[in-house]
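I am writing to request your help with a piece of structural work I have in hand. Thank you for your consideration; the sequence and its tokens are set out here:
=====
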Amino acid sequence: MSVKRLLTHLHLPVENLPVLSGATEWLNTTPLLPPALHGKVVLVDFWTYTCINWIRTLPYIRAWTETYGAHGLVVIGVHTPEFGVEHDVDNVRRAAREMRIEYPIAIDNDYAIWDAFANRYWPALYIADAEGRIRHHHFGEGGEERSEHVIRRLLADADDDELPVEPARAEAQGFELRADWDNLRSPETYLGLARTQAFASPEGTAFDEPHDFTIPSRLSTNEWALAGNWTLGREEAVSNAANGHIACRFHARDLHLILAPPNHQAAARFRVLLDGRAPGDAHGLDVDPEGYGAVNEPRLYQLIRQVGPITDRHFEIEFLEPGVAALCFTFG
């Protein structure tokens, strides 16, 4: 479950920083066990690399690492996967490199650290003082000013009297830009049958077997549908033939879709249409103005980023080769 702009003051089930020995692997560091963290202010950030809500917090995590690392702050990203493709450590490693993540990463494929924190959200941030007591937590996007205030206070309490005068400078670009919250009226939408909703193809659903689908003549806002031959699995819809379509009606500035290619050797081409036409200036980072792009690795793809007034729009993507898996729409 991911959350948006949610600041919660729920009672924490853990008061002290759990030991991170449950990590199945570490990236960018040797294992960080209690002796390595003794006397340090520790920020633990739960993430999963396809989560747009987490991606939009990354500029702040990155800036705090760069600004306060020399003053005793240790930032640890705990990568706990939501989807099957995120269990592949090579995918995480590639994503971390592309996102310029240089701080330590604990791979939490067995959910051992997640469970030790009794965590339930992506993103989730926990800050512990130099004595190992958790002093602050935040679930979802937002709250960065408060979190940085806590970091500075705890570092000062740990006898650092040379903190920078100015706050850290976070620089967001691309996927990392803040959502247009005033115009965001479309929710995260899963395409796998375990969690899907608002599926509008008139043929209904069929689990884990090839099935022909059609798109109705009109979709209501936040409905989605398929055309062509698809197999609906627990967490993904897989196109079985060339020219499979996914359509949805949405209300947001940005439209993203988590996609995985048929295999590791070949990219799968696609074309995007917005209200039946090439997106032009509304194309996303992974699409050209004519709407063309390719799925070359399992990740989040930005397909639409609008520049004009935000209204209900009809989105459609056609996969020109078979075998692409589509997992989840997210918006911004």
User: Anything to note?
Assistant: The chain is about 15% helix and 30% strand. The radius of gyration is 21 Å.
